[in-house]
Amino acid sequence: MEINAHSIKKMLHDEGIDIVGIADAQNLILAHPPRSATALMPSARSVIVMAVAHSLGAVYAPDIMLWTRNKIQTSRLLDATAEKISRILEREGFLSLPISADKPVEIFKQNPETGRKFRQTRTLGFLSLKQAAVTCGMGELGRNNLLLTPEFGPHQRLCAIVTEVPLAADSKRELDLCQDCGRCEEACPSGALKAGRYDVDPCFNYWAYGFKRLPPDRFWEWPRYIRMLRQHLKRRDPLVEGAQTYITDVDNCIECMRVCPVGGNWEKIRPKLLPPQKSGGTEK
Ligand code: B12
Predict the structure, then answer these.
(1) Which residue among 106, 140, 247, 251 is the one 20 to 30 A from 241 at the CA level?
(2) 16: left (phi over 0), alpha (psi -120 to 50) or beta
């Protein structure tokens, strides 16, 4: 099998990936703090960056949960494809590392440069997918701090493969896509986007908990903060929310499905006895 930039891009497009770019692993634009591809794989030659568009219907859906589901599925497509292509490349003799569209992230309570505790814990990708995409000309960073592509604006999810395959790299492009219209700043509910700057703490706080206020630094500000939390608790259930949002792959019961006898195709192969099924549920 011939492995080159063209054949890899074709394989990825055939899998349903919308945009593919290839960056030279030695010359990646790095974010802050910098995380290079060669720190992940010293022998890396290329970074294959891929993007899958969100469904625009999901972007416009009336409830963010519908978008979130779409996000999960775009991540799954990206991750599954990155795993599949990495395995093909490794079979051909090139060490390859898929970088997921989602987790993991490095977690920092303290600033590693100064040792000082951050006001709020910060998270960092093992590779900046946005910067990798900019490096290979897929798009540019907008005022909203997101990758904008000519094809889908900010509405795509990213993923990458760090690999030993030496591939022809795509060049960075000057695209001038962001109109600086300021709508992202007006829309930002947390104040994270302001005057052309992005502040990660209020963004993380609102993204994770839906709170517009950061936990106060000064003790006399706490009563107001607690009032805000009490308002939230009147209509929100953190336990159910957390479980529904983050533990979507855990099921403790499928009894109603298991016992159902319907399904003509299985008549010949369905066992006579249904054995009990172990699950995490308690008996009493
Ligand atoms: C961690 C993370 C987050 C965190 C932190 C974001 C951040 N900017 O740091 C939170 C949860 C807040 C977040 C929010 C969002 N994210 Co996010 N996120 C990531 C992730 C996993 C790593 C990003 C990273 O490394 N950030 C650190 C640096 C690179 O961020 P920076 O903004 O350039 O600069 C800040 C830091 O340097 C920070 N900083 C300064 N000093 C220090 C020191 C330390 C130790 C640290 C940790 C940070 C730090 O200050 C700077 C400005 O505030 C990437 C996937 C990936 N592996 O790249 C997705 C990713 C960037 N996120 C994405 C998206 C879509 C979002 C959200 C829209 C949320 C959502 N619902 O999906 C918002 C958008 C926020 C925004 N406008 O920037 C997409 C972007 C797609 C695109 N079109 O560009 C990515 C690429 C995921 C993907 N697979 O597609 N995200």
Answers:
(1) 106
(2) left
Q: Give every CB contact of residue 21 below 8 A, 6+ residues apart in sequence.
A: 48, 49, 50, 133, 135, 136, 137, 138, 170
Nearest atom of ligand 1 to the alpha carbon of 184: 77
The span from the CA of 107 to the CA of 34, in Å, is 14
Give me ligand 1 centre to Cα 185, in Å: 16
DSSP 54: P
Which two structure tokens, joined as six digits, stand for 200?
């990660």
Crossing angle of helices 64-91 and 5-14, rounded to 10°: 140
**3-state SS, residue 156:** strand
Entry pTM? 0.91
Per-residue pLDDT tens for 183-224? Answer: 999 999 999 999 999 999 999 999 999 999 999 989 999 999
DSSP 27: G
Dihedral pair phi/psi, residue 267, rounded to 5°: -50, -45
Q: How many CB atoms lie within 10 A of CB 112?
A: 9
Residue 248 has pLDDT above 90, yes or no: no
User: Which stretches does DSSP call E strand in the chain?
Assistant: 19-24, 46-53, 96-99, 105-110, 117-125, 140-141, 147-148, 156-163, 193-194, 197-198
Q: How far is CA 43 from CA 26, 46, 67, 112, 231, in A?
A: 10, 10, 38, 26, 53
The burial class, CB within 10 Å (0-12 / 13-18 / 19+), for 227 is exposed
Question: Rounded CA gap, 38 and 97, in Å?
Answer: 11
Cβ pair 131, 145 in contact under 8 A: no
Say which residue the tokens 């093909």 belong to. Answer: 88
> Residues lining ligand 1, CB < 6 A?
31-33, 101, 105, 108, 111-112, 122-125, 127-130, 144-147, 154, 156-159, 198-200, 203-204, 207
